[in-house]
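Discussion board: Methods & Data

I've been asked by a reviewer to show the raw model output for two of the constructs in my manuscript, not just the figures. I'm not sure how much to include, so I'm pasting the format here to get opinions. Each protein appears as its amino acid sequence followed by a line of discrete structure tokens. Is this the kind of thing reviewers expect to see in a supplement, or should I convert it first? Here is construct A:
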Amino acid sequence: MDEQTRVTVTNPRTQANCDKQSYTDYEITIQSDNSAFWLPQSTVRRRYSEFVWLREKLQRTGRELPDMPHKTLFRRFDNAFLESRCEGLERFLQSIIQKKVFLADRRVHLFIQSQLTTNEIDGIVSGDYRYDETLTMAQRKDRTTSTAETDHELSDELSDIEKEEQ
């Protein structure tokens, strides 16, 4: 049986942070029957800068990486630009998950299937955080649950883990 994985990047949403600076985030949805993913379906939101972070981390493998849409200071909130960027980010992720070397990287899974920050992902990958208990808890939930529904629990678990280690 062929395993099927579909990843989409859609619904760009522009908003302002606490400093009243505008940014856009993108909805990543993945549907997969590939056992490499711990949830068969999930949806998260990521900023362009987080995609750049993922690409920089994966560059360290020495493997060839797909291109990403370029950063721009002009037209960055233009609808046509945002749609084009969604398509480019989707091609980037689709290419990443097709290569076993990248599919084996925990950063890819945490990026696509959790709301963890890039710093938290780094902490988990480096071993500074233990994520196994949280991952087990997420697996016990209804496996079609969106990661957005488990985020609060994941965040609480990470906070508890950090407190235990201090």
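Construct B, same format:
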Amino acid sequence: MLKEKVYAADGDVHPDQQRIYGRGTELMDAEELVSLHVHDGKCILDLYLRKSKEISVLVIGMHGTRHKVAVDIFSTIKQLKKHLYWENNFCLEGKVLMFNGIHLDDSATFSNYNIDDKSVLYALEIPENHMNIKIRISTRDITSVFLSKSETIKNLKLMIRQHTFIPVDQQELTLHDTVLEDNKTLFEYFQDQEDGQILTLSLIHHIRISLTVCINMFKSSDYVVQSVSLLGSDTIEMLTQIVYQRVFILPKQQQLKKNGQILEHSKTLSKSNLTNGDIIFVDILPLCKITINLGEGHKPITVEILPNDTISEVKDHIQKESGILMNNRCLLHEGAVLEDHKSVDDYDIKDGSILFLSQRPPELVTLTFQRTSGEVSELKFNPRDPVSVQSTIQNIIKGENESASKSHVYECKQF
């Protein structure tokens, strides 16, 4: 993008002829200025020009025809095709030009593919079950590849690496906001795509982000400071794993904050708006040991939980420790039934608290009915319990006058 702006301002220096250096290092085309810690535009970049160079390439056709052509390394593949048509009477319609197994895109230059003097290009018919894939960063096409639908997304990324110098682990390919998985094939995503049809994929370049992590291990103003480097596509959970490897604090005990805002473990660094040089503070959540009374025939157990654990997560701990399934089970604390979606903090459960495991009370149905006297009454019962249903019917009849027949019809509504 920067090279294109220079070209637009100057008009004479093609992007392929530009070499831009920042702090002594040449910037790759796909690299972002944020990687140089550029803030408020205060960064001096050096621009060098590549000299134009004429090279000779050999184009071999399907039937062994050979065409030797002299071209400039900054001329495009489209210009070569025009030259072959007008000067050599060699039409490439319905064919593709290949170099080292890579399909050459019309808009790209020879320098884009590192095509040098005496290179050999092949003009081939579009084979069956192959796709022409353009790779785009933002609104700019950066390369084009031609490969079989049986190839994996990982192999596609390796081909992109050859032309863009973007490491495979920093690439994220998307189509209509769907992220393509490395181990899947192109056929799994594009089985309905016609052979040779051009498909454009978006490439997100996740550059490395260097962070300073300050861990409050001693509940004071003294912090353990660590430097961490991760990709923008990595999750906060991965950051907690690194902290665990270095200072042995369990990931679930770590509460990470940036500018006072808690970072969600499931989000990526990019979606958490983390950038180079950010400072992350890590607070350590205390583990609480609580006793669970499992009921008659079972010994009490002790589990370790966090204040922000949900009651559902506490029940998972209990099931893991005791082997008792939590279906239709509930936890009681100080006489109150604990709701699964609420947290330990919501019920003021602290270190040393005792919880009781019990059968979950049945869900009752309210029955509204009108007696023969005109009086409206309500009764609650468990519809899954035959005894409860029979008892409800008997209570209805018992309330009637002695002269009331059991054959009377009652108007009932169930809610």
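Answer (T.O., handling editor elsewhere):
This is acceptable in a supplement if you add a one-line summary per construct. For B, something like: Confidence is low (pLDDT under 50) at residues 401-415.
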